[in-house]
Amino acid sequence: MYNGIKIIIGLLIFAALVTFPFYSKMGKATAKPDPKVDTPEIQKLAEKKCVEPKEFMKTEHMKMLNDWRDTVVREGNLIYVSSDGKKYTISLQNTCMNCHSNKKKFCDECHNYSAVIPYCWDCHIEPKENKT
Amino acid sequence: MGLLLSFFVVIVLVLLAFGGVEAANLQYLFGIIIPYAAFVTFIVGIFYRVVKWGRSPVPFRIPTTAGQEKSLPWIKQNKIDNPSSALGVIVRMAFEVLLFRSLFRNTKTELREGPSLAYGSAKWLWLAGLAFHWTFFIIVLRHLRLFTEPILFFVPLIESLDAFFQMGVPLLYITDVVFLMAVTYLFFRRVLIPQVRYISLAADYFPLFLILGIGVSGVLMRYFFKVDVVGAKELTMGLVTFNPVVPEGIGVIFYIHLFLVSTLLIYFPFSKLMHMAGVFLSPTRNLANNNRERMHINPWNYPVKVHTYEEYEEEFRHFMKDAGIPVEKEE
Question: Could you tell me if B238 lies within 8 Å of chain A, comparing CB atoms?
């Protein structure tokens, strides 16, 4: 090879960069997030259901919260009618966080795992949790 | 021809992934086996091509420059455009690789009334190319959030800058918008400029459509047909930790996106996309212009059979003397 050293070094740097995720873990499996839904408020519920089905909430909760914010702030509408016809008060702190009072074990669990930094808490007050 | 063919190939790829996952439940094939095969092809292919390039001899330095070469002491040298040192070459290469300096010098030619030939600056290709490559790079870096745990420190930083305008939820990434706009421009440029269209082949259209397909499927996945991100990350982390898992119910759009990316990785070493590595081996950019300072020996020189005058005289002395031609040695 001509200028072989330089070319090989370049290739090795490239390989080191693109395979970083592989050797940084050295084949160790990572723990997947496990959001907890066992708060006292949820235990008290007769029917353990969120405002919408779990599968919907999993992928659409962020959009729903955004829509909630807009309907409350811009239209003054404080009532959400869910897909099964139940009415809920639109409030992050008083409705969502009433049941899901365990932000660290619920919200943050997945958000940290997938590097999502929601800006809810720029305005809302984070729930005070008992440090256990 | 090349255009339609490339378009339909990408459509078929999308349908393959859709059908494979929705109808045939081949999540393991599309989520694990193909991505692994694609990644191996990508790395091995790039190594193979670059080593093959490295084995061909480096030509005599070609000083295609846009600046004054190193000369007499009172003549000012352009140390970046016409470098004579390794440092100058590194700076020139950095400008080339990071800012596409050669493309910045792109010109357009027009035949005007007269007739006269007019040359002008043409920066749109450079601008769109730069926007496309940089946003693509940032998007790839952003994807590290799915491939590292704990997540590398700079990834959330890039994300928060990228989502600076905080539009919608999930937050709109500026790079997503710029990326799609730039690819679309590069496509329309090929189709609408007759000269460029004339020289465009399937090998030009296919990567464009493929990359557009990757961008569109990614945007659809993030903003419209949402997928289970935690499930997606479980799959990607399974890949990089060699504990492959296929979580239930990620959403078919994820597999389409992944399949198109795998196709890109497989296609990469066989295609013009190898300019990613090739740019570093551009002889007119990475060789210092020190032709007159240093002795450069032609690498493919072989011993040439010569016949010196002494040997000549030795061979023909007898005839030369007979013909009265003066000789250097008498016997």
Answer: yes
Among B162, B301, B273, B153, CA closest to B210: B273
- A13 contacts in chain B (CB < 8 Å): none
The answer to whether the CB atoms of B145 and A114 lie below 8 A apart is yes
C-alpha B301/C-alpha B252 separation (Å) is 59
Residue B58: closest C-alpha in chain A: A2
Domain of B65, CATH number, reads 1.20.950.20
Q: Is A29 on the interface with B (CB under 8 A)?
A: yes
- Chain B residues in contact with A3 by the CB 8 A cut-off are 54, 58
How is residue A80 written in tokens?
A: 């959400």
Our CA-based measurement puts residue A108 at a distance from the nearest CA of chain B, in whole angstroms, of: 12
Residues B221 and B248 in one domain: yes
State pLDDT tens for residues B75-118: 999 999 899 999 999 999 999 999 999 999 988 888 888 889 99
Residues of A within 8 A of B155 (CB-CB) are: 115
Of A51, A69, A68, A75, which Cα lies nearest the Cα of A123?
A69
What are the structural domain ranges in chain A? 31-123
Q: Within this chain, do residues B251 and B177 fall inside the same structural domain, yes or no?
A: yes
Confidence band of A101 (pLDDT split at 50, 70, 90): confident
Instruction: Compute the distance between CA of residue B166 and CA of residue B161 in angstroms, rounded to an integer.
Output: 10
CA distance A40 to chain B (A): 26
DSSP-assigned beta bridge partners for residue B109: B119
B21 CA to chain A: closest CA distance, Å?
19
Contacts 24+ apart (CB under 8 A), B311-318: none
Instruction: Please tell me whether residues B314 and B172 are part of one structural domain.
Output: no
Is A15 at the interface with chain B, CB within 8 A? Answer: yes
Reported ipTM: the value is: 0.88
Looking at the structure, tell me whether residues B54 and B111 fall in a common domain. Answer: yes
Rounded to the nearest angstrom, the gap between the alpha carbon of residue B288 and the centroid of all alpha carbons in its chain is 22
Residues B241 and B317 in one domain: no
* A4–B227 CB contact, under 8 Å: no
Confidence bin at B212 (pLDDT 50/70/90): very high
Answer whether B108's CB lies under 8 Å from B120's CB. yes
B197 and B321 assigned to the same domain: no
Range of the domain at B36: 2-298
How many interchain CB pairs under 8 A, A with B?
A: 92
